[in-house]
Amino acid sequence: MKDDKKFIMLVDDNPVNLRLGVNLLQEQYTVASASSADKLFKLLETNTPDLILLDIEMPVMDGYQAIQILKTNPKTKNIPVIFLTGRADTDDELEGLSHGAVDYITKPFKPPLLLKRIETQLLLEEQRRTLEHQALELERFNNDLQEMVAEKTQDILDLKNALLKTMAEMVEYRDFTTGSHIERTQQGLKILLEEIERRAIYQEESQGWDLALLLQSCQLHDVGKISIGDNILKKPQKLTAEEFEEMKKHAMFGEKIIEKIEATTKKSDFLKFAKIFAISHHERWDGNGYPHGLKEDKIPLLGRLMAVVDVYDALISDRPYKKAFSHDEAVKIILEGREQQFDPILVDLFRDISDEFKKITFEQ
């Protein structure tokens, strides 16, 4: 029949203490005794106890020296050690604990107290081993999961892109006054990005950019409008100051929505770029934008780019409270915003290629 008792090693150079200890413990535990540290290590060559009761004051090798050896051996370093000593000084107790002991009991000890403290440490050790086992199982599970994700990366990516595109379209359907705003800003951004690359402008900030990925992710720049009420989003008149403050929250809402998606899926540049577009496309070069009042090059380049095409599209689009501006009028307004609302380098670039905007779907 299997012995399920915990295994304890008792080490003490005093034979009386050894005999008393064994008699006290053997009813509840399997006990092996040793009269010196050297004999302890010989026992450990073929046995692994659940706990060691170790006397401090022993000849040749004391308990402090013995525990140092135990803690440097991978086979024994995790065995809990309780020091037994006749010393009752607090400094001695602190020293014992500093060497790695889990408890420190002074002699002569009271049997019920000793048994209870042994029981406590054995329970803690069992819990530690359980947690360690669970951690290994979790690591194994995570490794298996990563392999599964790697095998299906393309499928997941396709599904994610389809979902995000649908989210972008949902925003557009709700905000019916903007027409094909997402498509037009996407095409406008493409014009600016290609020109930046051709002219080698902002090379450091744009290094490693994937044009196709950026044009996909920019579709979510207004995704935060999902969280704006219809009474504001679909209001047929110009917003009041209070309503506009509520509308401005869509940048923060957009960032939070994308962060929630990030929390449930594998990190990707797609979502990283989408979050930058969402949170920063209403910042202004002069620091008077929202939501964070970032200034100049503290605004991410993607936000500065989206600001230009977003405002351009807003200007040439009809609104219940205004008629659409002509292309030339919109260009003039953006040029006037140089160094105020917009990055001056990007405004100059926009000025030089503004006719390209007129050739595509931006022209109403």
Question: What's the helix and strand layout?
Answer:
Elements: E1 7-11, H1 15-25, E2 30-34, H2 37-44, E3 51-55, H3 63-72, E4 81-85, H4 90-98, E5 103-106, H5 111-151, H6 153-174, H7 181-199, H8 203-206, H9 211-217, H10 230-233, H11 241-247, H12 250-263, H13 269-280, H14 301-315, H15 327-336, H16 344-359
Parallel strand pairs: 1-2, 1-3, 3-4, 4-5
Characterize the structure shown:
The protein is an alpha/beta fold. It has a five-stranded parallel beta sheet with strand order 2-1-3-4-5, sandwiched between helices. Helix content is 57%, strand content 7%. Helix 12 runs antiparallel to helix 13 and helix 13 crosses helix 14. Helix 3 links the parallel strand 3 and strand 4.
Q: What is the average of the pLDDT values?
A: 87
- Rough shape? rod-shaped
Reading the helices and strands in chain order gives EHEHEHEHEHHHHHHHHHHHH
From the N-terminal CA to the C-terminal CA, the straight-line distance is: 89 Å
Largest sheet: 5 strands, parallel
Question: What is the total domain count?
Answer: 2
Tell me which CATH architecture of the largest domain applies here.
Orthogonal Bundle
- Rg over CA atoms: 36 Å
Low-confidence stretches: none
Strand content: 5-15%
Lateral arrangement of strands in the main beta sheet? 2-1-3-4-5
